Every structure is written in structure tokens, then in C-alpha cells.
Amino acid sequence: MDLKSYIARRLLLAIPTILGVTLIVFFISHVVPADPALVWAGGARARPEQVEQIRQLYHLNEPIWKQYVIFLSDLVRGDLGISPVTGRPVIEDIKTYFPATLELTIFAIALAILIGIPLGVLSAIKKDSPVDHSTRIFALSGYSMPIFWLGLILQLVVYYYLGLVPDPGGRVNTQVYISSEFKTYTNMYLIDSLIQGRFDVFFDALQHLILPGFTLAYATAAIIARMTRSSMLEVIRQDYIEFARARGLPERVVIYKHALRNAMIPTVTVVGLSFGGLLAGAVLTETVFYWPGIGRYMVGTINTLDFPALMGGTILIALVFVIVNLLVDILYAIIDPRIRYG
Fold this sequence. Notes:
Blueprint: H1 3-29, H2 36-40, H3 48-57, H4 64-76, H5 90-125, H6 130-144, H7 147-161, H8 174-179, H9 189-195, H10 199-235, H11 239-246, H12 251-279, H13 283-288, H14 294-303, H15 307-335
């Protein structure tokens, strides 16, 4: 099967996956013991006619199966509905919040790869040395350390005590943003600032990315380092690695050209799953650093019973995982040409 046919088949299989996710989330969210119309109308002080109007507007007086059918019919037309909390189309809210999470995730995953893979390789080639033990302690602590605790400690030490970064809350300094007549094209500040040549905004946004980015990257780098080390230890014991050394190839060529490439398949899987998970919403990190991303947005939708926004975010998360898993499968064949699509 060629690549195009494989991608087409995977995309077709993604449709029932996404429908299944929406079905589960829709029915679970709609059986909570609360009246969303009353919540949206303002609580106990809301007038009964106002509550009834909202209930009719959002079809809450219909049977739950009919509500789901109405939701699917709107979804086919690309309509995710209007959020009763923000009063805006859900798709507009997603366009506002998701780029912030995307920017943070790209920064964090790049940092995790730059830290995790070299540490994993170094730990494998220097097995049972002090370097190996240090790397394993780093990986174990990163894997087990609560993210919210790490974020708070970094704020306390790096910002409050050392003053090495600006106010860690938000994406950019408010005064810089307001005074710069800054325009948002992609809503990712690093890209938008470079497009407009606003290097003051670029460096300010980059500084605000450091603490939340490292907080996310630490746990992911630990997982990548452990997986890379394990894969490298398995590969460097293979006969073809010994044969490459017997041919007199430099150790660097043996490790990085022959061993690392064949050890990258499990690491790519971990990176892909981590990237998808972070894109789905780094809730704790975004909460600790007041990051206006999709994670905080989804928490808000749950607290306010914002069903349209909740379903829109769920569909986005499902799409993210489908696309990331597809990209990871394609990378398998790029790394190892022996892999064939079936």
C-alpha cells in the first residue's frame, strides 16, 4: 500500500473514532445532576422565562438522543455552536485559545528533545558510570515530580528570588503588547512578532515561555531520556554494531549513524504521544502560569457546564491525537525504510 492510500485509509478510520469520542463525552456531560440552563441564566436569581428561553435555544428540552442528532447535523456543516458563557461561536474561542497552547507545546517539545535524546544516548554509551546514574536520577525525578509543584517552585526561585525572568503570568508583557500596535495573524506571538519585525515583542514573549515551557519539557524530557537509553542499550548489543566497530568506523559514526537511527522508533512514539497530550491541553501548567490556552479554556467549560464549548474542545483534542499518530506512523518509514504500510 502506498503512502497516499495509507493516509486516506487512516483518515477514514478517524471518523468513527471521533464520533465515538463525541458520543461518550456528549452523553456523560448531559447526565450531570445540574440544570445548565439555570447556570447559564445566572443561577438562582434568574427569571423562569429566561431559563426556559435558554432551554429552548439550546434544545435542552428535547430528548438526549435528539440533542445528539442536532449536534451531529450542525457538526457536519462545520458549526460547533455558540458558547452560552462567552456568547461567541465556539470555533472563534478555539482559534483564540488553541494557538497559545500550540506555541507553548512546540517550545516545550523542542526543549524536551534537545535535552532528552542527548542525555539518553550519553547514558547508554556510558552505562553504569556517574553520568548514567545522574541521568537516571534526572529521568526518575522528572517522571515522578508533580508538574504544578515544579511550576510553583520555578516561579518562587527563578522569578521571585533570582529575578531572572519577567512576570511569569501570561504570554507577554501587557505594556509591550498595548504600546506596540501589535497585530495577531496566527495568534502565536513568536511567529506574529517575527512577521512584523517586532523583536521587542518576540523576546518578551520568549521570556514568558521559558518557565512554563521548561515545566512541561522536564517531564517529557525525562520520558524521552529513559526511552532513548533503553533503546540504545538494546541496539548497541546487536551484531551489526559490533561489525561496524570491527570495520574500524569511528565511534561517533557507529553511535549516531547506525545505532541511534535504529533506536529512534520507540523514542519517536513517545515524542508523538507527548506532543499530542500537551496539545490536548496542559491544564496544570496553564493554570499555574495563567497561560490562556486550550487547557484552561476546557476547565472553564466544565465548571460552567458549557456544553457547546466542551464538545468543540473534545473534537479538537480527538483530531489532534489522530493527526499526531498519523504523523508518527509516517516518520517510522522515514527513519526505517524497511517499514511498509499495510
